[in-house]
Automatic annotation (TrEMBL):
Listed name of the protein: AAA family ATPase
Pfam family name, one: bpMoxR
Gene3D superfamilies to which the protein is assigned, alphabetical: P-loop containing nucleotide triphosphate hydrolases (3.40.50.300)
InterPro entries, A to Z: ClpA/B, MoxR, P-loop_NTPase, RavA-like_AAA_lid, RavA_ATPases
Species this protein is from: Solibacillus palustris
Domain ATPase RavA-like AAA lid: 215-283
Length: 372
């Protein structure tokens, strides 16, 4: 079943340039039924990428809105019913509005004013909307929020910021070749879909992904290391992060969380922007043993090689063949590294899995380069 998601992930990576991390975050949030926040300048594709939630899952209800300082509750929760208002009942018509959505994208979410904030907080956290004081369960699975800037102290938005378990900075395309490939792209990839029933089946399987005592101990070690430098995420955030770790493992085609999955917690456990780098360093140092650090490094390097090769073939520059030969050699060198590590430490199944995966994709890359 995870092959279906991996196919969707691959096609999204083909459509959105230099957005691999954000796409993984979007699908992870989808599988774990958690909320995701994108922070970055305008024009980085936050809204277009987030709208994929409404396209990927058939039979789902999707809601999208841009907030301003002058937005009113009617824009998110529906207008007051005039018929009920005549009877002195303040009931909103929520049809096709946020309280009925499975997925939502709220742009400039930190522009939410006090008239909107309380209802929004309850809906995001408890999946409940109070209509005329009556609690109505909402089918909401995931909200993606976006903002061009971080919140400032004293704005009263700390609780809203805290509701987003995953937080990612989205920047402009970094590599020049990737930027040029984006400019030349005239045929966006078709994105495969799944039904709501298939999504629910995926989510059920995610909930059954195993987390070993070794992983729990690593999380506790991260918590202590963060506390030692004055960073204190809530126990609730740690508890909720388990669903993210399970979703991350499932998306990678595994039935158990491994140490390398803990890297995503660098986008969960910081509370203020000045804590972000320290949190990432602590997670890197604490969570990864020698093998896990090796796996993380080689996986990242190999993905970069594949992406560079793909872009090189798209650009068709005069020196493309020479560059592709170098990239292929780099890929083979990485494979030999993994093979040697697997030979030295044969009792780590994730090394065998990595070796098999790189070998398979390297063969495909070789075929593509020969046929170029």
């Amino acid at each position: 079943m995870s092959k279906q998601l991996q196919n969707i992930q691959q096609k999204l990576n083909e459509r959105f340039y230099d957005r691999e991390e954000e796409i993984e975050a979007l699908l992870t949030a989808l599988l774990s039924k958690q909320h995701l926040l994108f922070i970055g300048p305008a024009g980085t594709g936050k809204s277009v990428l987030s709208s994929m939630l409404g396209e990927i899952v058939e039979e789902s209800r999707y809601f999208q809105h841009l907030l301003t300082p002058f937005s009113t509750p009617e824009e998110l929760f529906g207008v007051l019913s005039l018929k009920d208002l005549e009877q002195g009942v303040y009931k909103r018509n929520v049809s096709n509005m946020l309280p009925e959505a499975h997925f939502a994208f709220i742009d400039e979410i930190f522009k939410a004013n006090s008239a909107i904030l309380n209802s929004l907080l309850t809906l995001i956290n408890e999946r409940i909307y109070y209509n005329n004081g009556v609690p109505i369960p909402a089918p909401l699975m995931t909200i993606v929020g976006s903002s061009n800037e971080y919140i400032e102290e004293g704005e009263g938005l700390e609780a809203l910021f805290d509701r987003f378990l995953l937080r990612y900075e989205v920047n402009y395309i970094r590599e020049q070749d990737t930027f040029i490939a984006m400019l030349k792209d005239q045929n966006p990839s078709h994105i495969p879909k799944m039904t709501m029933q298939e999504l629910c089946e995926h989510q059920t399987r995610v909930a059954n992904i195993t987390i070993s005592d070794t992983i729990y101990q690593a999380i506790a070690k991260i918590r202590q290391a963060l506390q030692d430098v004055g960073i204190r995420p809530s126990d609730r955030r740690f508890k909720q992060s388990l669903s993210i770790l399970r979703a991350k493992a499932y998306l990678s085609g595994r039935s158990e969380v491994i140490h390398a999955d803990l890297f995503i917690m660098a986008n969960i456990l910081w509370e203020t922007i000045d804590q972000k780098n320290a949190t990432q360093e602590i997670i890197n140092e604490t969570a990864f043993d020698t093998v896990d650090a090796f796996i993380h490094r080689t996986t990242t390097e190999f993905e970069t090689i594949l992406m560079t090769a793909q872009n090189t073939m798209l650009l068709k520059t005069p020196h493309a063949r020479t560059q592709l030969s170098h990239l292929l050699m780099q890929g083979k060198t990485l494979y030999i590294e993994v093979e040697n590590m697997n030979r030295q430490i044969p009792n780590r199944p994730e090394l065998q899995h990595l070796k098999t995966d790189i070998h398979k994709r390297l063969l495909q890359m070789t075929s593509d380069v020969i046929g170029f």
